[in-house]
Design a protein that fits this description.
This is Proteasome assembly chaperone 3. With 171 residues, the chain is α+β, with helices and mostly antiparallel strands. The chain has helices at residues 67-70, 115-135, 156-170; strands at residues 24-31, 34-42, 46-53, 60-65, 107-111, 142-148. It has one domain (24-85, 98-170): 2-Layer Sandwich (Ribosomal Protein S5, domain 2).
């Protein structure tokens, strides 16, 4: 009986080991007296941000389309209507620069079953979307935000601003 020896065929492809293909950045700091981690991953079609505190799982997912806002002709990057003349704007009112853009719409994808958590999450998402468009006015990717925040109802303004500050450092 004749035996045949077969040699393994050379694969038609080559496997290259490369790092994760999406650029990412992680920042850790304290917000609302709680250790908070913010992670950003930049994909070609979306910008994914996650904010977690402690061992909390991501219980609220929100998205904000930035493409329609970046192409808006009536709103400048600060969110003000450009049809106003300079004299119509109150020059002493610097607080309006901190408001989220009015042309951004945050929509809950998952979670957000508590009304106060949903309001905080959507406000945070539009603030982050506004900051992204301020930094990169032509940004058209979808912003997806995952939240795992503790004691959202007790956060208060200072805690909210601390979370926003960590996010801005991560952008």
């Amino acid at each position: 009986m004749a035996s045949t020896i077969s040699t393994p065929a050379t694969p038609a492809y080559t496997v290259e080991h490369t790092p994760f293909p999406a650029p990412s950045k992680t920042i850790t700091g304290y917000a609302n007296n709680t250790l908070t981690t913010v992670t950003r991953m930049s994909f070609t079609d979306r910008l994914l941000l996650t904010i977690s505190q402690g061992e909390r799982s991501f219980s609220h997912w929100i998205h904000v389309p930035l493409a329609s806002a970046s192409s808006s002709e009536n709103v400048n990057p600060m969110g003000r209507n450009t049809n106003y003349s300079h004299s119509d704007l109150d020059e002493d009112d610097g607080d309006t620069d901190l408001l989220p853009r009015s042309d951004l719409t945050a929509t809950t994808l998952l979670g957000g079953t508590k009304r106060e958590d949903e309001m905080v999450g959507q406000t945070l998402a539009t603030m982050i979307g506004s900051a992204v468009l301020m930094k990169r006015p032509r940004e058209e990717r979808l912003l997806v935000l995952g939240l795992g925040l503790q004691r959202v109802g007790e956060m208060g303004r200072q805690g909210f601003e601390e979370v926003v500050g960590l996010v801005l450092d991560c952008l």
